[in-house]
Structures are given as structure tokens and as C-alpha cells.
Amino acid sequence: MRIDKFLKVSRIIKRRSVAKEIADKGRILINGKVAKSSSDVKSNDEITIKFGNKTLTVLVKELLDTTKKDDAQRMYEITSETYERDFKNE
């Protein structure tokens, strides 16, 4: 499954177009390698996504073509969520 579709179906990112844009800017890594929006995702892959000052790392558990809101979290497990501090305001 393509990374942009996985991120949308799992509801990590709400829109596939946004997921594609983030991936094409080099802000998504799959197993430590920069991913493009067309990169394939498999079970047990580690995905790291950089959102502004937040970095989210998830482990792919299951690939589903469609999900209901309650089932989306079965697709992944959050392994790390870090925030960079903003030193400008201190």
C-alpha cells in the first residue's frame, strides 16, 4: 500500500493530498529512509513523520484498504512522539 493512502486510511493524516505533500517534501521516513508519496508500506515497517515541531514514529501493524474510525488505530502502534521546544519565547 502507498504511504499516502496508508496515512489517510489510518487517519494519521486526514487528507491524502496533505500526506502526499508532506511525503514529497521529504518529511516522512520509512525504516530510516526518505519516502516519496508512492513508496510502499508493509507490516512491521517503522514510519517517522515530521509535523512542524512534532515528530511521530509509528509501527505498521496491519494494512486495511478501508476502515471505520474505531478500526483505524488497529493499523498502527505509536512508538514515539516528541516535541521540539521553542526557545524564542523563553
From TrEMBL:
Gene3D superfamilies: RNA-binding S4 domain. The keyword Protein biosynthesis applies. One of its GO terms (molecular function) is tRNA binding. PROSITE patterns: S4. Associates with stalled 50S ribosomal subunits. Binds to RqcH, 23S rRNA and the P-site tRNA. Does not require RqcH for association with 50S subunits. HAMAP family: RqcP. This is RQC P-site tRNA stabilizing factor. It comes from Lentilactobacillus kisonensis DSM 19906 = JCM 15041.
